[in-house]
Amino acid sequence: MRQTFILLLSVLFSTTLWAESVTVRGKLVSASDQNGLPYATISVAREVAPAAAIKKLATQENGTFSTALDPGKYIFTFYFVGMDQLEKPVEIGASQKSVDMGEIKMTESSTELDEISVTAQAPLVKVEIDKLTYNAKDDPESSTSSVLDLLRKVPLVTVDGEDEIQLKGSTNFKIYLNGKPSNMISSNPSQVLKSMPANSVKDVEVITDPGAKYDAEGIGGIINIVTDKRADDGYSGSVGANGDTFGGYGGNAYLATKYGKVGFTGNAGYYNFRRPASESSFFREETDPANTLSLDGTNKGKGGGLYLSGALSYEPDTLNLFNLSVSRFGGEYNSIGAQSAISRGVRPHSYDTRTNSTSQYGGMNLSADYQRNFKRKGEMLTVSYRFERNPNDSEYESEYNNVIDDQNTFHFPDGYKQKSVNNAGGNEHTGQVDYVNPLNGKHSIEAGLKYIFRDNSSEGDHTFFDVVDKVWKPDLTRKNDLDHQQNITSAYAGYGYKTGKVGMKVGLRAEHTQQDIHFMNMAQDTIIKTNFFDLVPSATISYQLGMTRTLRGGYNMRISRPGIWVLNPYVNDIDPNNISYGNPNLDAEQQHNFNINYGSFSQKLNFNATVSYSFAQNAVTSYSFIRDGVTHSTYDNIGRNHTVGTNVYVSWTPTQMIRTYLNGGINYTDIQSTENSELRNSGFSGRAFGGLTFTFPKDLRVGVNGGVFTSRVQLQTKQSPFYHYNFNVMKSLLNKKLDVSLYAQSLFSKYREFSSTTTGDGFTQKNKFLNPMRSINLSVTYRFGDLKSSMKRVQRTISNDDVMQNQDGGSQGGGTPAQGGSQ
């Protein structure tokens, strides 16, 4: 396999070595003082098609620029804020080695500008007062990579070897699509983002300081994926397909079109994946009374999913804008596991078990927005409604054979079978009104009202096979049903100030929550009613150190209301030795966040560094304990967390051929239980992801990426560090409309071992997993149409981001709480 990969790489590389490019250089200056113009945008198009740019670049700090082009006739177009647009024709002969355009003079524009901003093609990162923006359209690899691959390069974001996404080293965050929480992403982010082509994304925003307009969620931030919605009385789009050596395959399609006052964008995708058999081992040692338990098993899985999304825009005039969007996502995952168990000590027994489980996830979303603009630029009123439905069901069947239990210490007899079906999910209705007024060039205000009604439920059906009567019977002892309703009313107000080099945003949000929880099992039928009120402040200040350097700091307090996945009392006893369930009595947690950020960007070098501190007194924390020889895993408000962290992002492009980047950080965490003083853990955790890309002539790219991650500090569990790496080769054909990409992961190691150790009162247990890692993926993408201008969409809309999906996953949601020993 290694020889095949090297041969293919050599063939692709050899097809491009004969290309002879010519270097075009020059210097852009101001006509009034002859000073160089830094970071001006330059667009290059062929003379026969001046409207279709084939390349964009930016001038350096002294105004100089250079680029490599094939022989031919071109139009260079220069843009700089406050200057008139300028076009220059350039003809490159086949015999020329270089072309010097000399000094190119731009004159000041007579048009008065309402605001000043720096626009440049090469800098990929823009620092704003409350967020960082990664310009995906200027990433040369976005044409062939997936959105998940794109996230690996975004500042403050890391993606580990199992494709788990982290923001500032934490999984406690939200993922938005065009400013809204997305069902199709939050339910299964890794698979969906793998299926989405990066060429459909315009920007990736990392909102590090969620202001008062965002729900008072206790999260580490927001990753907002902004799709490209450009179309000008025409259409554009792409289709793609992919497959890998595991047996997975998929396809995707993207379309953007606009005719007159109506615009439409749509995205669709299907994926089918296979997970080859992995091996696992589990060992638990109890001290009082003394007992050991060993489990050895295998597990393999397969699944697939389909997602559809569309957005319709209608702009009858310049003052009114209507948006309607709908999305539907559904998927299924099936796994088959086999396990052998041996217990020694006070509970001697052994058995073999085989389990078949299926989880179904998905949801649908319907949003309607109306935006009213006023004569003052930037003043607007937005009215929005959103409906969301999230069904998430699961079922399993287990069978126990070869049971040896002379002292009756095991739960089930030989031949015992059990089934469980859980129907969970809910409906959500949201109404919202937002008002924004810039007042003048220095001051701005914003305010809004919001109401959310949520109705979640979980209902289980449990049966067992009576080995005596040989019939299936209901098991009422395992009944754990839940109805959960929330009414949330909130209001916010914010103020912004910007003058010279200083910017500031302050805000205050008030939220009132009323919730009814109906908990039903065989022993009780209880209704719990709770009400609480929160005032949530936020503040951010920034200082412009220079044209390309910014220093900013911020504070915000957030809360997280427990979601259905941590409230759900449904007992997942697929493994009778390790069971897990939620806690319907959880309270909302509060978290305080402070951060200082320094950012600097230029044509060749982008640098961003963040230092942060956060603490929570009543954090919802997963914990495990032993009862009757069974590990129980659940959640409670027992966490007191303190975390100090750093994150550094560097992107360096020394030449047009080479680009390299590094993204990572180190955290120190101190976490302890408020209920048990002996439950405490502290230490350092780190992560780093880097890559190197070579861009050769004739549109050939070769890259290598890798990552190293140490264990996250948790209350009871320590995980082993691990690393991963991949290689990729991409070739563009048919005038850059067709891209063929080859992606190889862990090429030189077929399996990778992961382990975790959990300690508690009187027990220690360790999990080991040997997972298949080596895979090769081939993808093909074809683009069609022409992209020119942006489809309008409202600038404020509903974003419900206050719900905690699960303790370790944040918005990554989906599934029941983790099995014992794997938190």
Automatic annotation (TrEMBL):
Residue numbers spanned by region Disordered: 800-823
Any one annotated GO CC term: cell outer membrane
Alphabetical UniProt keywords: Cell outer membrane, Membrane, Signal
Record keyword Signal present: yes
Ranges of compositional bias, category Gly residues: 810-823
UniProt cross-references to InterPro entries, sorted A to Z: Beta-barrel_TonB_sf, CarboxyPept-like_regulatory, OMP_b-brl_3, Plug_dom, Plug_dom_sf
Signal peptide range: 1-19
Pfam families on file: CarbopepD_reg_2, OMP_b-brl_3, Plug
Cell compartment(s), UniProt: Cell outer membrane
Residue ranges crossing the lipid bilayer per the database entry: none
Boundaries of every Outer membrane protein beta-barrel domain copy: 372-782
Superkingdom as given in the UniProt entry: Bacteria
Domain TonB-dependent receptor plug: 134-222
Name under which the protein is recorded: Outer membrane protein beta-barrel family
